[in-house]
Amino acid sequence: MPFLAHQLARARAAGVEHVVLATSYLAEVFEPYFGDGSAHGLRLTYVTEREPLGTGGAIRGAADALDARPGDSVLVLNGDILTGLDIRGLLHRHERARADVTLHLTRVADPRAFGLVPTDPDGRVLAFTEKPRRPEEIVTDQINAGCYVFRREVIDTVPVGRPVSVERETFPGLLAAGALLHGVVDASYWLDLGRPASFVQASADLVRGIVRSPAVPGEPGEHLVLPGAHVEPGARLGGGTVVGAGARVAAGAEVEGTVVLDGARIEEGARVRASMVGAGARVGPRTVLDGAVVGDRADIGADNELRDGARVWCGTTIPDAAIRFSAA
């Protein structure tokens, strides 16, 4: 299922009833799948940017569709973050602090690729450093984790009709104006899905229950075989592998920590680890995939070996024994 289904399910479990989806790139794919949200126990409203206006512009553009009134709390979620955050707890901390904005923060070993957010002992945000470049700029391992709670009227201070970054403009501007920005450091599961490898890891972690989502069917386990899939006796699945509807895994195949999308085929003796196999794609006999991405309807012949970030475009055919090793 789309990653967004997990975010919506977790928001609903936290008591959210109305969600505004601020979309731009591939905006046309959302409404046909999610509809009015009733199937997910929500009311969904769609707001589409005709040209990208940044993180702040997207939030401001969605404001007119909100039901919230001045003084109400508005939860904002980045669309590419999987987290085990206690959303109810974040909302409670925001209201208890009487903050203008509350930010979910997490700690990472290497914060250079993220926005740094130091706080005082009471959780008050002291500064923002977006993707530090020099060692002296790394003043904390706390990073912006992509989930916020705004007071409704604060959103109305974001400029209209031009690109705005909440990380580089809105939050530093509010801080300079004396607003109370509160940071909640949370040690729960957190993963940015900006790379294919992260997407595959997130899927495996959801299947195994390392991070929980009400949208995952059944109990956590080493694999999830969806209705209509066929796994032959003698095939081995593990590591949080998911096998989509209509997909087939042949005898002797080993599939570990992999996303096998609908209608894909893993042939006998293939070994597939930490990879994504697209809808309708085929992985031939004895072929090895390790950290690879195979596009929809691609056909990988027998006795090939693709590793370490190798990517095969949709519809591509690779003959038998054509590639013994490929790195991105």
Automatic annotation (TrEMBL):
SUPFAM superfamilies: Nucleotide-diphospho-sugar transferases. Gene3D superfamilies: Hexapeptide repeat proteins (2.160.10.10), Spore Coat Polysaccharide Biosynthesis Protein SpsA, Chain A (3.90.550.10). CDD domains: NTP_transferase. Pfam families: GMPPB_C, NTP_transferase. Transmembrane segments: none annotated. Residues 2-206 form the Nucleotidyl transferase domain. InterPro entries: GMPPB_C, Mannose-1P_guanyltransferase, NTP_transferase_dom, Nucleotide-diphossugar_trans. Residues 222-301 form the Mannose-1-phosphate guanyltransferase C-terminal domain. Belongs to the transferase hexapeptide repeat family. This is NDP-sugar synthase.
